[in-house]
Design a protein that fits this description.
Length: 373
C-alpha cells in the first residue's frame, strides 16, 4: 500500500532548555484502523536516523524502515492494531528541526535552533497523540533511540500507555557511547563546508557527514557479521594497491553507506539528535534507576541481543533489574542473532513471535478490564 505522510502543526512547544519553540510541525504516518473504543493504538518510535515512514511504501516505492515488522500478519499486525509513527523533533524528514525556517528570521535555523532532549521529543509526540483523540496507547515501542523514547513515555506519561517494549536500548549512554557520537559530531564540524552550521543554500558538509555515518555504521554491526559479509576480501582487484584508494570490500561498503546517507540526512540534525541521546538519563533527579521507574504503571517487554556491542545486553538487564526491584510486570528476552545492533531491524523472526504474543495478551486483558468496568 502507498502511505501518505501527514502533517500536524502546533502553536508552541516548551523545551527543557528553557526556550519555547513556535510553529512546530510534526510529520507522521498511520497504518490500520483505530477501533471504536480507541484501545488498539500502537506508537512506534524510530531510531536515530529513521523517520515516520515505518511501513508500507511511499510514492517513490521506498519501503518503510521496519516494513518486515509492521503490516498485516506481522508483529505489529495492522489488521488488529492502529500504528502511528512520527518523525522526531530536530529531525529532517518533515518535523521541525535545524533545517526548518525560523519564523523570526525567515532563514533556516542552523545552529540557532535550541538544544533539544529526548523528553522534548516525547512531549511533542504526546501532543500529537492527544490531537488524534487517543487517551491511552496499547504500547509504545522502538529500538535504540526509539527505546529511549519508549522508556521516557513510561516515566513521563504513566497513565497514557498500557505497555512498553524497549528494544536494544539503554536508560543512559555510557562514556563509550557518548564518545562515538562526539567523534561523528567532530567529523561534521571539521568539514570546511560546515560553515558554522549555515551551509543551507551552498554545499553541505558531505565529507564530514559521510565519515560520521561510517563510524556509526561500524557500531551497528558485530565483528562476526562483518567477518561473514566482508572478511578481508579485496574489491575488484587481485592484490593490494599500496595506496589509499579502495582495496577491501568493507572500505567500499562504508564509503557507499556514507555517500548514501549524505543525500537523505541533514548534518545539523545529526548534531542535535546525537546530543539529545547523550543527554538522556532516566536516573536524572532520582537516587536510582529503580526510583525513576517507580512512576511507571505499564507492563514491559524488554529485548536485547547478545551480539549488540553498541547497546550491550547488560544495559537492558539494568532496566529489567530496576523494574523488578519495584515489582513491575516485566518480561525480558535476550536473543542471539549475529547481526549486532542492527539485529532489531534485520533479524525479526523471534522478535515477531515474542511481540505478537505480548501484544495479544495486552489487548485481551485491556478489553477484559473494560468489560469489568
Amino acid at each position: 500500500m502507498i502511505v501518505e505522510t501527514q502533517q500536524a502543526r502546533f502553536e508552541s512547544l516548551d523545551l527543557d532548555c528553557g526556550e519555547t519553540l513556535r510553529d512546530v510541525e510534526v510529520a507522521y504516518e498511520t497504518y490500520g484502523q483505530l477501533n471504536e473504543d480507541r484501545s488498539n493504538a500502537v506508537l512506534i518510535e524510530h531510531a536515530f536516523t529513521g523517520d515516520a515512514h515505518v511501513a508500507g511504501v511511499d510514492h517513490e516505492g521506498k519501503p518503510g524502515w521496519w516494513a518486515n515488522m509492521v503490516g498485516p500478519g506481522k508483529a505489529f499486525d495492522t489488521d488488529h492494531y492502529f500504528v502511528i509513527c512520527s518523525n522526531v523533533l530536530g529531525g529532517c524528514r518533515g518535523t521541525t528541526g535545524p533545517a526548518s525556517i525560523n519564523p523570526a528570521t525567515g532563514r533556516p535555523w542552523g545552529l540557532r535552533f535550541p538544544g533539544i532532549t529526548i523528553s522534548d521529543m516525547v512531549r511533542l509526540q504526546k501532543m500529537l497523540i492527544d490531537r488524534l483523540g487517543i487517551e491511552r496507547l496499547l504500547t509504545v515501542t522502538g529500538g535504540s533511540m526509539g527505546g529511549m523514547q519508549a522508556l521516557e513515555w513510561a516515566v513521563a506519561y504513566p497513565d497514557s500507555i498500557e505497555s512498553c517494549i524497549p528494544i536494544a536500548t539503554t536508560a543512559r549512554h555510557s562514556a563509550q557511547q557518548i564518545a562515538f557520537n562526539e567523534t561523528g559530531r567532530q567529523a561534521i564540524m571539521a568539514d570546511p563546508d560546515f560553515a558554522g552550521g549555515d551551509f543551507y543554500g551552498g554545499p553541505p558538509p558531505a565529507r564530514g557527514l559521510a565519515v560520521a555515518r561510517m563510524v556509526g555504521h561500524i557500531t551497528y554491526m558485530s565483528d562476526e557479521s562483518m567477518r561473514e559479509k566482508f572478511g578481508r576480501r579485496l574489491r575488484n582487484r587481485d592484490q593490494v594497491s599500496f595506496g589509499f584508494d579502495i582495496d577491501f570490500e568493507v572500505e567500499s561498503y562504508l564509503r557507499y553507506r556514507g555517500a548514501q546517507f549524505v543525500g537523505r540526512f541533514d548534518a545539523n540534525s545529526y548534531l542535535y539528535i546525537t546530543k539529545a541521546m547523550d543527554y538522556f538519563d532516566l536516573t536524572a533527579g532520582f537516587p536510582s534507576l529503580a526510583a525513576s521507574l517507580e512512576r511507571a504503571t505499564c507492563r514491559f517487554l524488554v529485548l536485547s541481543f547478545t551480539s549488540d556491542w553498541l547497546y550491550p545486553s547488560y544495559q537492558s538487564q539494568e532496566i529489567v533489574n530496576a523494574l523488578r526491584a519495584r515489582n513491575h510486570d516485566v518480561t525480558y528476552c535476550e536473543l542471539s542473532p549475529n547481526y549486532g545492533h542492527d539485529a532489531f531491524l534485520v533479524d525479526v523472526g523471534e522478535q515477531t513471535e515474542i511481540i505478537r504474543g505480548f501484544l495479544a495478551r495486552c489487548l485481551r486483558e485491556r478489553r477484559q478490564a473494560g468489560v469489568r468496568a
